[in-house]
Amino acid sequence: MPFQIPSENEYNSYAVVMKGIVKQFPKVLANDHVDLFVKRGEIHAVVGENGAGKSTLMNQLYGLYTPNEGQILINGKELSIDNPKDAIQAGIGMVHQHFMLVGPLTVAENIVLGDEPTKRFNIFDLRKARKEVKKISEDYGLKVDVDTNIEDLPVGTQQRVEILKTLYRGAEILILDEPTAVLTPQETEELFVVLRNLQNDGKTIIFITHKLNEVVEVSNNVTVMRGGKVTGRIPTVETNQREIANMMVGREVLLRLEKEKKQRGKKILEVKELDVNDNRHLPAVRGISFDLHEGEIVGIAGVAGNGQSELVEAITGLRKKEAGQVHFMEEDITNSSPKVIRELGMSHIAADRFKHAMIKEFSVAYNIALGRHYKEPFASGGFLNHKNINRISKGLIEKFDVRPREIGINAGNLSGGNQQKMVVAREVDYQPRCMMVAQPTRGLDIGAIEFIHTTLLELRRENVGMLLISMELEEILSLSDRIFVMYEGKFMGEVKPGEVSLEELGLMMAGQTLEEVRSDVNE
Prior knowledge:
By secondary structure, the chain is of the alpha/beta class. 33% of the residues lie in helices and 26% in strands. The chain contains 18 helices and 24 strands. The strands form six sheets. It has a six-stranded mixed β-sheet, sandwiched between helices. The protein has a six-stranded mixed β-sheet with strand order 18-21-22-15-23-24, sandwiched between helices. A hairpin with a 2-residue loop joins β11 and β12. The longest helix is centred in the middle third of the chain and has 16 residues, at 185-200. The chain is globular, with a radius of gyration of 24 Å. The model has no long low-confidence stretch (mean pLDDT 90).
């Protein structure tokens, strides 16, 4: 049975009705008369490509943007939501993809921050805060230690704290933006249990995600957006991942690519007993050794914050090494600068694009020239060759579908997904011998992911060696020839796709060796 568009008389039974929403930005119509209908007490998925308008739509529901046209009705009552305070008063809470928590404060202090209980003389009542947070934690089955500092909690527990923050403020409608982006498979399953418990308690949940398997698993209805418009509404039980992907992109999409068998070539990168510290001067990489060959993809799986970023930064010359050696193309690059390493043929898709991959205030064209801006074809005689910069940039943003197709706008004005495509375009066009590929599809939609994966496999065919760091286990399993699992700066073991399950990888990411995982199962 198809999704039934409600009549105005039925709006009272819907938690959220967004009718005819229009949001215009300079040069971009982000929402073009969008209608969204979310039933009370359901889990409703909103999916779409980067730039489809789904985040813009949710930001208007939460009061971060104001619509140019349209109506917002909450439980049948039309409201003007001009800021997040209005949204919170209307019973709407939002859990952002990047957590809004203060590391040195405790769980209780974070949850009540901005809405603290007080006692005489307006003094913060910590005992009451602890008691209230403990109660709400127990009521909703979101168990956390209220006295633990946020910085000492695993990512999955931090997310529980974010959800508790919204519940503490009385949220009946929760918006979750890419909630599983940094979770292990086990933490994702725990989150789904939490969401179902909240649903059973009468809460309404709007769930934004790029992971279509999660849409099918946890949602009741799906709204699909493309190009600022709604292209489909369908009950989840009546659809599948392929159909949703096709509605998102407007064409047939390959959800998983077949990787051809290939003999790896000669060794091009060797890392020996590498030790690296983090920004706090604490050990982040501990005695890691591995090698990388031509035409192979070596994957590193792990939850964010377990040393992956520090490892790549050390290899590419961005971070000092405390001990160990790195050899690339038979050269000792242990103490070499990023420029020297890049000249030897190593490119880098950085995990933190704002810190290491782009300059927000520069145009798209100048960002694409970065790293080669001082030599042909981007410069000649000590001067930038603007004609070549513009020509090459136009070709790359067309090929990699960077939107909008304007090389003169500042890169900071692109959406996150389009910034990522711009960086990938530049690094692939460098024609490297070796690539450090960190979180290449973070924030990308299904069509862009398919394109990036196809591009990486084409580079593999061309004998480029790649180190792939990703929190997306499906991506690691699909693309890698060998996989190392990293936990607290160490490798928990080396495995091969096809010889290990998703669940086993998830347990290794939580600190077990493969032998320990399998012995626990056998017992």
